[in-house]
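#struct-pred

JT: dropping the chains for the assembly here, can someone run the whole complex?
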Amino acid sequence: MKKWFATLKTLIWKDLLQEWRSKDMLTAMLAFAILTIFIFNYAMELDPRTRASLAPGILWVVITFSGTLGLNRSFVAEQEQGSFDALVLAVPGLGSIWLAKQITNFLIMLLLILIILPIYSLLYNQNLFNPALIATFVLGAWAFSAAGTLLASMSSQSRMRDLLLPVMLFPILMPVNMAVVKAGEGIMNGLAFASYQNWLLILLVYGIIMTTISLMVFDYVILE
Amino acid sequence: MKIELKGLSKSFGSVQVLKKCDLSLESGELICLVGSNGAGKTTLLRIISGLLGADKGHFFVNGEEWLLNSSDWRRKCALVAHKTFLYQNLTGLENLRFFSRLYEIDLSVAELEGILAEVGLAKAGGRQVRTYSRGMQQRLTIARALLSRSELLILDEAYTGLDKEGSELLSRILLSCKEEGTAILMTSHDPALAFGISDAFVKLNKGTLSEKIGTKEKQWFEVEGLLFPESKVEESRS
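RK: done, full complex below.
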Protein backbone atom coordinates (compact mmCIF):
# COMPACT_ATOMS: atom_id res chain seq x y z
CA MET A 1 0.00 0.00 0.00
CA LYS A 2 2.90 2.32 0.86
CA LYS A 3 4.37 1.71 -2.62
CA TRP A 4 0.98 2.38 -4.20
CA PHE A 5 0.79 5.78 -2.51
CA ALA A 6 4.39 6.56 -3.45
CA THR A 7 3.50 5.82 -7.10
CA LEU A 8 0.39 7.98 -6.78
CA LYS A 9 2.46 10.86 -5.39
CA THR A 10 4.96 10.55 -8.25
CA LEU A 11 2.17 10.57 -10.84
CA ILE A 12 0.51 13.63 -9.28
CA TRP A 13 3.88 15.41 -9.17
CA LYS A 14 4.33 14.71 -12.88
CA ASP A 15 0.79 15.84 -13.81
CA LEU A 16 1.00 19.06 -11.78
CA LEU A 17 4.48 19.91 -13.06
CA GLN A 18 3.34 19.31 -16.64
CA GLU A 19 0.31 21.57 -16.11
CA TRP A 20 2.40 24.24 -14.36
CA ARG A 21 4.78 24.34 -17.34
CA SER A 22 2.21 24.13 -20.15
CA LYS A 23 -0.88 25.70 -18.50
CA ASP A 24 -2.83 23.79 -21.15
CA MET A 25 -5.88 23.13 -19.02
CA LEU A 26 -6.02 26.17 -16.78
CA THR A 27 -5.71 28.72 -19.60
CA ALA A 28 -8.54 27.17 -21.59
CA MET A 29 -10.75 26.77 -18.52
CA LEU A 30 -10.17 30.28 -17.16
CA ALA A 31 -10.68 32.03 -20.48
CA PHE A 32 -13.93 30.15 -21.03
CA ALA A 33 -15.19 30.67 -17.46
CA ILE A 34 -14.53 34.42 -17.37
CA LEU A 35 -16.12 34.97 -20.79
CA THR A 36 -19.21 32.99 -19.80
CA ILE A 37 -19.60 34.95 -16.55
CA PHE A 38 -19.43 38.21 -18.55
CA ILE A 39 -22.01 36.93 -21.04
CA PHE A 40 -24.41 35.93 -18.25
CA ASN A 41 -23.88 39.32 -16.62
CA TYR A 42 -24.90 41.18 -19.78
CA ALA A 43 -27.63 38.77 -20.82
CA MET A 44 -29.59 38.77 -17.56
CA GLU A 45 -30.80 41.91 -15.84
CA LEU A 46 -32.04 40.49 -12.53
CA ASP A 47 -33.23 41.88 -9.24
CA PRO A 48 -30.93 41.14 -6.25
CA ARG A 49 -33.16 38.36 -4.79
CA THR A 50 -33.43 36.40 -8.07
CA ARG A 51 -29.70 36.90 -8.58
CA ALA A 52 -28.97 35.29 -5.23
CA SER A 53 -31.00 32.17 -5.94
CA LEU A 54 -29.68 31.86 -9.51
CA ALA A 55 -26.01 32.34 -8.56
CA PRO A 56 -25.23 28.69 -7.70
CA GLY A 57 -26.84 27.50 -10.96
CA ILE A 58 -24.98 30.01 -13.14
CA LEU A 59 -21.69 29.32 -11.39
CA TRP A 60 -22.09 25.57 -11.65
CA VAL A 61 -22.86 25.82 -15.40
CA VAL A 62 -19.67 27.87 -15.80
CA ILE A 63 -17.65 25.38 -13.71
CA THR A 64 -18.90 22.24 -15.51
CA PHE A 65 -18.52 23.67 -19.01
CA SER A 66 -15.00 24.95 -18.33
CA GLY A 67 -14.23 21.73 -16.45
CA THR A 68 -15.21 19.71 -19.54
CA LEU A 69 -12.80 21.79 -21.62
CA GLY A 70 -10.08 21.00 -19.09
CA LEU A 71 -10.89 17.28 -19.04
CA ASN A 72 -10.49 17.15 -22.82
CA ARG A 73 -6.96 18.48 -22.38
CA SER A 74 -6.04 16.31 -19.41
CA PHE A 75 -4.76 13.35 -21.43
CA VAL A 76 -2.99 15.43 -24.10
CA ALA A 77 0.49 14.79 -22.69
CA GLU A 78 -0.11 11.05 -22.73
CA GLN A 79 -1.46 11.16 -26.30
CA GLU A 80 1.33 13.34 -27.68
CA GLN A 81 4.09 10.80 -27.27
CA GLY A 82 2.17 7.67 -26.35
CA SER A 83 3.41 7.82 -22.78
CA PHE A 84 0.30 6.01 -21.58
CA ASP A 85 2.00 2.81 -22.75
CA ALA A 86 5.06 3.62 -20.65
CA LEU A 87 2.86 4.21 -17.62
CA VAL A 88 0.99 0.93 -18.18
CA LEU A 89 4.31 -0.91 -18.36
CA ALA A 90 5.76 0.73 -15.26
CA VAL A 91 2.86 1.12 -12.84
CA PRO A 92 1.78 -2.04 -10.97
CA GLY A 93 -1.78 -0.95 -10.06
CA LEU A 94 -3.21 0.98 -12.99
CA GLY A 95 -5.84 2.61 -10.77
CA SER A 96 -3.17 4.97 -9.46
CA ILE A 97 -2.80 6.46 -12.97
CA TRP A 98 -6.51 7.30 -12.93
CA LEU A 99 -6.53 8.60 -9.36
CA ALA A 100 -3.53 10.85 -10.02
CA LYS A 101 -5.27 12.37 -13.05
CA GLN A 102 -8.48 12.74 -11.08
CA ILE A 103 -6.77 14.49 -8.18
CA THR A 104 -4.94 16.80 -10.60
CA ASN A 105 -8.21 17.64 -12.38
CA PHE A 106 -9.88 18.23 -9.02
CA LEU A 107 -7.10 20.56 -7.82
CA ILE A 108 -7.25 22.53 -11.07
CA MET A 109 -11.02 22.84 -10.71
CA LEU A 110 -10.55 24.11 -7.14
CA LEU A 111 -8.13 26.71 -8.43
CA LEU A 112 -10.66 27.72 -11.07
CA ILE A 113 -13.39 28.06 -8.42
CA LEU A 114 -11.06 30.15 -6.25
CA ILE A 115 -10.42 32.52 -9.16
CA ILE A 116 -13.95 32.86 -10.52
CA LEU A 117 -15.79 33.28 -7.22
CA PRO A 118 -14.40 36.79 -6.54
CA ILE A 119 -14.90 37.76 -10.20
CA TYR A 120 -18.53 36.67 -10.04
CA SER A 121 -19.00 38.39 -6.66
CA LEU A 122 -17.64 41.65 -8.06
CA LEU A 123 -19.67 41.60 -11.26
CA TYR A 124 -22.96 40.63 -9.61
CA ASN A 125 -22.33 42.56 -6.40
CA GLN A 126 -22.96 39.47 -4.29
CA ASN A 127 -21.05 37.92 -1.45
CA LEU A 128 -20.48 34.28 -2.39
CA PHE A 129 -17.87 33.54 0.26
CA ASN A 130 -20.19 31.31 2.19
CA PRO A 131 -18.41 28.23 3.62
CA ALA A 132 -21.44 25.99 2.97
CA LEU A 133 -21.64 27.11 -0.68
CA ILE A 134 -17.89 26.60 -1.16
CA ALA A 135 -18.18 23.12 0.42
CA THR A 136 -21.01 22.32 -2.03
CA PHE A 137 -18.85 23.34 -4.98
CA VAL A 138 -15.91 21.31 -3.61
CA LEU A 139 -18.07 18.18 -3.30
CA GLY A 140 -19.49 18.85 -6.78
CA ALA A 141 -16.00 19.31 -8.21
CA TRP A 142 -14.88 15.97 -6.75
CA ALA A 143 -17.93 14.15 -8.18
CA PHE A 144 -17.48 15.92 -11.54
CA SER A 145 -13.78 15.10 -11.79
CA ALA A 146 -14.36 11.47 -10.72
CA ALA A 147 -16.91 10.83 -13.48
CA GLY A 148 -15.18 13.12 -15.97
CA THR A 149 -11.67 11.70 -15.67
CA LEU A 150 -12.85 8.15 -16.35
CA LEU A 151 -14.87 9.23 -19.39
CA ALA A 152 -12.00 11.44 -20.60
CA SER A 153 -9.66 8.44 -20.47
CA MET A 154 -12.14 6.55 -22.69
CA SER A 155 -12.81 9.39 -25.11
CA SER A 156 -9.12 10.31 -25.39
CA GLN A 157 -8.62 7.14 -27.43
CA SER A 158 -11.16 8.34 -29.99
CA ARG A 159 -10.68 10.83 -32.80
CA MET A 160 -14.02 12.47 -31.88
CA ARG A 161 -12.99 13.03 -28.26
CA ASP A 162 -14.00 16.72 -28.14
CA LEU A 163 -17.56 15.79 -29.07
CA LEU A 164 -17.72 12.44 -27.36
CA LEU A 165 -16.81 13.59 -23.85
CA PRO A 166 -19.68 16.06 -23.26
CA VAL A 167 -22.17 13.69 -24.92
CA MET A 168 -21.20 10.91 -22.50
CA LEU A 169 -20.54 13.09 -19.47
CA PHE A 170 -23.53 15.42 -19.16
CA PRO A 171 -26.23 12.72 -18.83
CA ILE A 172 -24.14 10.95 -16.16
CA LEU A 173 -23.70 14.24 -14.29
CA MET A 174 -27.44 14.94 -13.98
CA PRO A 175 -27.64 13.98 -10.26
CA VAL A 176 -24.54 16.10 -9.50
CA ASN A 177 -25.86 19.14 -11.36
CA MET A 178 -29.23 18.89 -9.63
CA ALA A 179 -27.69 18.39 -6.18
CA VAL A 180 -25.25 21.33 -6.48
CA VAL A 181 -27.92 23.71 -7.77
CA LYS A 182 -30.56 22.69 -5.20
CA ALA A 183 -28.16 22.75 -2.26
CA GLY A 184 -26.69 26.07 -3.47
CA GLU A 185 -30.15 27.59 -3.81
CA GLY A 186 -31.00 26.56 -0.25
CA ILE A 187 -27.74 28.05 1.05
CA MET A 188 -28.16 31.34 -0.81
CA ASN A 189 -31.78 31.69 0.31
CA GLY A 190 -30.68 31.21 3.93
CA LEU A 191 -32.67 28.00 4.50
CA ALA A 192 -31.95 25.62 7.38
CA PHE A 193 -29.25 22.97 6.83
CA ALA A 194 -31.84 20.18 7.20
CA SER A 195 -33.65 21.40 4.07
CA TYR A 196 -30.67 20.82 1.75
CA GLN A 197 -28.55 18.26 3.60
CA ASN A 198 -29.90 15.39 1.45
CA TRP A 199 -28.54 17.08 -1.67
CA LEU A 200 -25.10 17.29 -0.06
CA LEU A 201 -25.39 13.63 0.88
CA ILE A 202 -26.18 12.78 -2.75
CA LEU A 203 -23.03 14.62 -3.84
CA LEU A 204 -20.90 12.80 -1.29
CA VAL A 205 -22.28 9.35 -2.16
CA TYR A 206 -22.01 10.04 -5.91
CA GLY A 207 -18.36 11.06 -5.48
CA ILE A 208 -17.55 7.92 -3.48
CA ILE A 209 -19.36 5.61 -5.91
CA MET A 210 -17.77 7.14 -9.02
CA THR A 211 -14.29 7.03 -7.43
CA THR A 212 -14.73 3.36 -6.47
CA ILE A 213 -16.14 2.33 -9.87
CA SER A 214 -13.40 4.20 -11.72
CA LEU A 215 -10.65 2.57 -9.66
CA MET A 216 -12.19 -0.83 -10.40
CA VAL A 217 -12.74 -0.46 -14.15
CA PHE A 218 -9.78 1.68 -15.21
CA ASP A 219 -7.61 -1.39 -16.00
CA TYR A 220 -10.22 -2.60 -18.50
CA VAL A 221 -10.68 0.85 -20.02
CA ILE A 222 -6.97 1.15 -20.71
CA LEU A 223 -6.11 -2.37 -21.73
CA GLU A 224 -9.18 -3.45 -23.72
CA MET B 1 15.05 -16.76 -18.15
CA LYS B 2 13.47 -18.52 -21.11
CA ILE B 3 10.42 -17.01 -22.78
CA GLU B 4 8.23 -19.09 -25.09
CA LEU B 5 5.23 -18.07 -27.15
CA LYS B 6 3.06 -20.82 -28.53
CA GLY B 7 0.23 -20.52 -31.06
CA LEU B 8 -0.20 -16.76 -30.71
CA SER B 9 -3.00 -15.38 -32.91
CA LYS B 10 -4.46 -11.91 -33.22
CA SER B 11 -7.14 -10.43 -35.47
CA PHE B 12 -8.41 -6.91 -35.92
CA GLY B 13 -11.97 -7.39 -37.15
CA SER B 14 -11.81 -9.69 -40.16
CA VAL B 15 -8.08 -9.13 -40.70
CA GLN B 16 -5.92 -11.81 -39.11
CA VAL B 17 -2.61 -10.14 -38.29
CA LEU B 18 -0.88 -13.00 -36.47
CA LYS B 19 -1.48 -16.70 -37.18
CA LYS B 20 -0.34 -19.27 -34.64
CA CYS B 21 3.06 -17.68 -34.06
CA ASP B 22 5.69 -19.55 -32.05
CA LEU B 23 8.81 -17.90 -30.68
CA SER B 24 11.36 -18.60 -27.98
CA LEU B 25 13.92 -16.26 -26.49
CA GLU B 26 16.50 -16.74 -23.76
CA SER B 27 18.45 -14.46 -21.45
CA GLY B 28 21.40 -12.91 -23.24
CA GLU B 29 19.91 -13.61 -26.68
CA LEU B 30 19.10 -10.92 -29.24
CA ILE B 31 16.54 -11.75 -31.90
CA CYS B 32 15.82 -9.39 -34.77
CA LEU B 33 12.31 -9.53 -36.18
CA VAL B 34 11.98 -8.53 -39.82
CA GLY B 35 9.01 -8.16 -42.12
CA SER B 36 7.49 -5.74 -44.60
CA ASN B 37 5.38 -2.75 -43.56
CA GLY B 38 2.08 -3.87 -42.08
CA ALA B 39 3.33 -7.41 -41.50
CA GLY B 40 2.31 -7.22 -37.83
CA LYS B 41 5.69 -6.69 -36.17
CA THR B 42 4.51 -3.88 -33.91
CA THR B 43 1.37 -5.85 -33.00
CA LEU B 44 3.51 -8.83 -32.00
CA LEU B 45 5.81 -6.64 -29.90
CA ARG B 46 2.86 -4.94 -28.19
CA ILE B 47 1.33 -8.33 -27.35
CA ILE B 48 4.62 -9.63 -25.95
CA SER B 49 5.04 -6.50 -23.83
CA GLY B 50 1.54 -6.99 -22.41
CA LEU B 51 0.06 -3.81 -23.88
CA LEU B 52 -2.30 -5.61 -26.24
CA GLY B 53 -4.31 -8.74 -25.68
CA ALA B 54 -3.95 -11.78 -27.95
CA ASP B 55 -6.95 -13.77 -29.22
CA LYS B 56 -5.27 -17.15 -28.74
CA GLY B 57 -1.99 -18.56 -27.60
CA HIS B 58 0.06 -19.46 -24.57
CA PHE B 59 3.01 -17.76 -22.98
CA PHE B 60 5.61 -19.47 -20.82
CA VAL B 61 8.44 -18.10 -18.67
CA ASN B 62 10.91 -20.81 -17.60
CA GLY B 63 8.31 -23.43 -18.52
CA GLU B 64 5.60 -21.90 -16.34
CA GLU B 65 2.52 -20.41 -18.02
CA TRP B 66 2.05 -16.67 -17.49
CA LEU B 67 -0.59 -14.15 -18.46
CA LEU B 68 0.94 -11.70 -20.91
CA ASN B 69 -1.28 -8.85 -19.78
CA SER B 70 -0.46 -9.19 -16.08
CA SER B 71 1.23 -6.23 -14.46
CA ASP B 72 3.94 -8.56 -13.08
CA TRP B 73 4.91 -9.44 -16.63
CA ARG B 74 4.62 -5.90 -17.98
CA ARG B 75 7.08 -4.67 -15.34
CA LYS B 76 9.62 -7.20 -16.57
CA CYS B 77 9.55 -5.61 -20.04
CA ALA B 78 11.10 -2.39 -21.28
CA LEU B 79 9.82 -1.04 -24.56
CA VAL B 80 11.25 1.40 -27.07
CA ALA B 81 8.47 2.06 -29.55
CA HIS B 82 7.78 4.38 -32.49
CA LYS B 83 6.65 7.09 -30.08
CA THR B 84 9.12 8.28 -27.47
CA PHE B 85 6.85 7.92 -24.39
CA LEU B 86 8.52 11.07 -23.02
CA TYR B 87 6.87 14.05 -21.38
CA GLN B 88 7.66 17.05 -23.52
CA ASN B 89 7.28 19.68 -20.78
CA LEU B 90 9.62 17.90 -18.38
CA THR B 91 13.39 18.07 -18.67
CA GLY B 92 15.42 15.02 -19.66
CA LEU B 93 16.49 14.58 -16.05
CA GLU B 94 12.93 14.94 -14.74
CA ASN B 95 11.71 12.32 -17.23
CA LEU B 96 14.33 9.86 -16.01
CA ARG B 97 13.62 10.67 -12.36
CA PHE B 98 9.89 10.18 -12.93
CA PHE B 99 10.30 6.76 -14.55
CA SER B 100 12.92 5.63 -12.03
CA ARG B 101 10.46 6.41 -9.21
CA LEU B 102 7.72 4.44 -10.95
CA TYR B 103 10.08 1.46 -11.14
CA GLU B 104 10.94 2.02 -7.48
CA ILE B 105 14.61 2.50 -8.29
CA ASP B 106 15.94 5.18 -6.01
CA LEU B 107 18.60 6.85 -8.15
CA SER B 108 20.37 10.02 -7.09
CA VAL B 109 20.64 13.03 -9.41
CA ALA B 110 24.32 12.16 -9.98
CA GLU B 111 23.39 8.62 -11.05
CA LEU B 112 20.69 9.91 -13.38
CA GLU B 113 23.15 12.39 -14.86
CA GLY B 114 25.53 9.47 -15.36
CA ILE B 115 22.86 7.63 -17.37
CA LEU B 116 22.26 10.76 -19.44
CA ALA B 117 26.00 11.02 -20.09
CA GLU B 118 26.06 7.37 -21.23
CA VAL B 119 23.63 8.21 -24.04
CA GLY B 120 25.44 11.42 -24.91
CA LEU B 121 23.01 13.84 -23.27
CA ALA B 122 25.17 15.07 -20.40
CA LYS B 123 24.68 18.75 -21.27
CA ALA B 124 21.01 18.52 -22.22
CA GLY B 125 19.61 17.01 -19.02
CA GLY B 126 18.29 20.32 -17.71
CA ARG B 127 16.43 21.24 -20.89
CA GLN B 128 12.79 20.47 -21.55
CA VAL B 129 12.36 17.53 -23.92
CA ARG B 130 10.37 19.62 -26.41
CA THR B 131 13.61 21.45 -27.25
CA TYR B 132 15.39 18.16 -28.14
CA SER B 133 15.93 17.01 -31.71
CA ARG B 134 14.40 13.68 -32.81
CA GLY B 135 17.73 11.93 -32.35
CA MET B 136 18.21 13.35 -28.85
CA GLN B 137 14.70 12.24 -27.88
CA GLN B 138 15.49 8.76 -29.18
CA ARG B 139 18.65 8.66 -27.04
CA LEU B 140 16.62 9.69 -23.99
CA THR B 141 14.01 7.04 -24.85
CA ILE B 142 16.74 4.42 -24.84
CA ALA B 143 18.00 5.71 -21.47
CA ARG B 144 14.43 5.53 -20.12
CA ALA B 145 14.07 1.94 -21.30
CA LEU B 146 17.38 0.92 -19.72
CA LEU B 147 16.50 2.49 -16.35
CA SER B 148 14.28 -0.36 -15.22
CA ARG B 149 16.94 -3.02 -15.91
CA SER B 150 14.15 -5.22 -17.25
CA GLU B 151 14.67 -8.86 -18.13
CA LEU B 152 13.22 -8.37 -21.60
CA LEU B 153 14.08 -5.39 -23.76
CA ILE B 154 11.78 -4.81 -26.74
CA LEU B 155 12.83 -2.34 -29.40
CA ASP B 156 10.62 -1.33 -32.29
CA GLU B 157 12.73 0.40 -34.94
CA ALA B 158 15.00 1.81 -32.24
CA TYR B 159 17.59 3.03 -34.76
CA THR B 160 15.08 5.51 -36.21
CA GLY B 161 16.26 9.11 -35.90
CA LEU B 162 19.73 8.21 -34.66
CA ASP B 163 22.82 9.50 -36.44
CA LYS B 164 25.82 7.25 -37.14
CA GLU B 165 27.31 7.89 -33.72
CA GLY B 166 23.94 7.28 -32.05
CA SER B 167 23.45 4.01 -33.95
CA GLU B 168 26.88 2.80 -32.88
CA LEU B 169 26.11 3.81 -29.31
CA LEU B 170 22.84 1.86 -29.38
CA SER B 171 24.60 -1.23 -30.76
CA ARG B 172 27.20 -0.99 -27.97
CA ILE B 173 24.46 -0.62 -25.34
CA LEU B 174 22.57 -3.62 -26.71
CA LEU B 175 25.71 -5.74 -26.69
CA SER B 176 26.40 -4.82 -23.07
CA CYS B 177 22.75 -5.60 -22.15
CA LYS B 178 23.18 -9.02 -23.80
CA GLU B 179 26.31 -9.64 -21.77
CA GLU B 180 24.39 -8.76 -18.61
CA GLY B 181 21.80 -11.40 -19.50
CA THR B 182 18.96 -9.29 -20.88
CA ALA B 183 16.82 -10.96 -23.53
CA ILE B 184 16.33 -8.59 -26.47
CA LEU B 185 13.71 -8.65 -29.20
CA MET B 186 13.97 -5.93 -31.80
CA THR B 187 12.68 -4.96 -35.22
CA SER B 188 14.72 -3.10 -37.77
CA HIS B 189 14.13 -1.80 -41.28
CA ASP B 190 17.84 -2.26 -41.80
CA PRO B 191 18.59 -5.89 -40.87
CA ALA B 192 22.14 -5.52 -42.19
CA LEU B 193 22.78 -3.01 -39.40
CA ALA B 194 21.36 -5.39 -36.79
CA PHE B 195 23.27 -8.41 -38.19
CA GLY B 196 26.43 -7.63 -36.22
CA ILE B 197 24.69 -7.80 -32.84
CA SER B 198 21.87 -10.31 -33.51
CA ASP B 199 21.99 -13.98 -32.54
CA ALA B 200 19.10 -14.86 -34.82
CA PHE B 201 16.54 -13.42 -37.21
CA VAL B 202 12.87 -14.30 -37.54
CA LYS B 203 10.66 -13.15 -40.36
CA LEU B 204 7.01 -12.26 -40.06
CA ASN B 205 5.25 -12.80 -43.38
CA LYS B 206 1.47 -12.68 -43.87
CA GLY B 207 0.96 -13.24 -40.16
CA THR B 208 3.20 -16.28 -39.95
CA LEU B 209 6.47 -16.30 -38.08
CA SER B 210 9.41 -18.16 -39.63
CA GLU B 211 11.80 -20.47 -37.80
CA LYS B 212 14.82 -18.77 -36.22
CA ILE B 213 17.69 -18.17 -38.62
CA GLY B 214 20.89 -18.18 -36.60
CA THR B 215 23.70 -15.79 -37.45
CA LYS B 216 26.54 -17.75 -35.87
CA GLU B 217 29.39 -18.40 -38.33
CA LYS B 218 27.31 -16.98 -41.17
CA GLN B 219 27.95 -14.05 -43.50
CA TRP B 220 25.26 -11.41 -43.95
CA PHE B 221 24.56 -12.41 -47.58
CA GLU B 222 23.80 -15.98 -46.45
CA VAL B 223 21.29 -14.78 -43.85
CA GLU B 224 19.87 -12.27 -46.33
CA GLY B 225 19.35 -15.04 -48.86
CA LEU B 226 17.42 -17.07 -46.30
CA LEU B 227 15.38 -14.10 -45.10
CA PHE B 228 14.56 -12.61 -48.49
CA PRO B 229 14.82 -15.42 -51.07
CA GLU B 230 12.42 -13.63 -53.43
CA SER B 231 14.70 -10.57 -53.75
CA LYS B 232 17.72 -12.83 -54.37
CA VAL B 233 15.89 -14.53 -57.24
CA GLU B 234 15.02 -11.15 -58.76
CA GLU B 235 18.61 -9.96 -58.32
CA SER B 236 20.01 -12.98 -60.11
CA ARG B 237 17.47 -12.54 -62.94
CA SER B 238 18.47 -8.91 -63.45
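JT: nice. Chain A has a mean pLDDT of 90. Residues 170 and 208 of chain A are 18 Å apart (CA to CA).
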